[in-house]
Amino acid sequence: MTPGIIYGGTSEPMPIKLDHNALYHALRREAFHSSILDMEIEGKIEKVLLRDYQMHAYKQIVMHIDFQRVSADQPIHVKVPLHFLNEDTSVAVKQSGGTIHHTVTELDVSCLPGDLPEFIEVDLARLEVGQTIHLSDLKLPKGVSATSNDTSMAIVTASAPNAASDDADAAPSEEPKASE
After folding, report:
1. How far is residue 16 from each of residues 7, 10, 42, measured CA to CA in Å?
2. Which of 85, 104, 155, 161 is the most exposed, having the fewest neighbouring CB atoms within 10 Å of its CB?
3. How far apart are alpha carbons 146 and 138 in whole angstroms?
4. 108-136 pLDDT, tens per residue?
5. Beta strands of the chain (E only): which ranges?
6. Are the beta carbons of 140 and 109 closer than 8 angstroms?
7. Dihedrals φ, ψ of 157, to 5°?
8. What is d(CA 79, CA 9) in angstroms, rounded to the nearest whole number?
């Protein structure tokens, strides 16, 4: 059994114990981390959200888990994973041989529990070399808003092919010239 706690809402924090194997396998699913879960406590179903968990340093053991109670009419703040679509077939990769760089893989959002998405899709089909998809370019589901006020925050960029290796090759050749 894995010890845990449920807190928040109008009820007092409550210690719980969960079946370790079921919990371990549930934690491996992405949706478990960003979904509203139904948890039966003393015969009553409560809506909860996974907030934190601790793993053993080197064993595959869940040491502790925290859940927060949620209310249908109170907004929640959650990190939602980003799913990047059409990366291999994007203009930047397919036509230009460029490289896609994910600068953000999850997004902090605020929404009502009923509006919480499992993930947010980012379509890269039209991304070209030198372009960046910013937070303002994302189409968030209805009722979901990003908590960041920086709408120019880069989500993903496409760079020219071998741009990083060309810079790395150029740097060492310049150093000997400067020291001569």
Report:
1. 11, 17, 10
2. 85
3. 10
4. 999 999 999 999 999 999 998 999 999 99
5. 2-7, 14-18, 36-41, 44-55, 62-69, 76-85, 99-102, 106-111, 120-123, 132-134, 145-146, 154-159
6. yes
7. -130, 160
8. 20
pLDDT band at 179 (very low <50, low <70, confident <90, very high): very low
SS3 158: strand
The residue type found at 8 is: G
Run of H or E residues at 105: none
pTM for this model (two decimals) = 0.77
- Count each helix (H run) and each strand (E run) in the chain, helices first: 4, 12
Provide the token pair at 149. Answer: 């006020």
Residue 87 vs residues 67, 140, 155: alpha-carbon distances, Å: 34, 19, 13
Cα–Cα distance for residue pair 92/113, rounded to 1 Å: 37
